[in-house]
Amino acid sequence: DVDGIMSSYILVNGIKRLGGSVSYRIPHRVKDGYGIRDYMVEEAYNQGIDCIITCDNGISAVEAADKAKELEITYILTDHHEVPSDENGEIIPKADAVVNPKQKECKYPYKMLCGAGIAYKLMSYIYEEKGDKSYQKELLPFAAIATVCDVVPLEDENRIIVSNGLKMLADKNDIKCVGLKALIDAQGIERELSSYDLGFRIGPCLNAAGRLED
């Protein structure tokens, strides 16, 4: 869905800008179902990949995390969904890092970010550690699109993400992503984008790819 697409875009482009070599794997809605599977980890291993970062999924994929550890792949889990639990407490996959504010032990003050919001926060932190804030203009609009389309509460940090993201989408000439600019043109939107446009015009076009084909 839009949140998974935008999360992937943020991570792939953020890592590339850091000079990293990165590929991505989006599950097929029918063949794979939702989220990462242990056989996808094996596929990555066979391709020579030594680090996996999930986005918008993974918090319930215990087997995938176990397979990554078995194959000695660094496994970073980013997700915003509820953490599964049983009578013994939370069931958290054995990843090298789990970035999900809905964990009981997580002290991050805002819990309702979407998957792309969390991916954006991760890349923001990495860039800030390097003293580079140039990521903001390029990546924030994609977090804004996902925040609207994933129907998380438009309050607190989410409202800030969407408000600033829309400001950065106000002038099409400032949009560096050729695909997004073409999608806006195809919609015939000549005015400043609104949250309605993200949720009911841009978002459905992105969702359609997975519904119609892959």
Q: What's the gist of this structure?
A:
It is built from eight helices and five strands, in the order H-H-E-H-E-E-E-E-H-H-H-H-H.
Architecture overview:
The chain has 214 residues and is mainly α. It is built from eight helices and five strands, in the order H-H-E-H-E-E-E-E-H-H-H-H-H. The strands form two sheets. It has a three-stranded parallel beta sheet with strand order 1-2-5. Strands 3-4 form a two-stranded antiparallel ribbon. Strand 1, helix 3 (62-70) and strand 2 (74-78) form a beta-alpha-beta unit. Helix 5 (135-149) crosses helix 6 and helix 5 (135-149) packs across helix 8 (195-212). The chain is globular and about 50 Å long. The mean pLDDT is 94.
Q: How can the largest sheet be summarized?
A: 3 strands, parallel
Strand order in the sheet with the most strands = 1-2-5
Please write the string of helix (H) and strand (E) elements.
HHEHEEEEHHHHH
The total of helices stands at 8
* Helix percentage: 40-55%
Number of beta strands = 5
Proportion of residues in β-strands? 5-15%
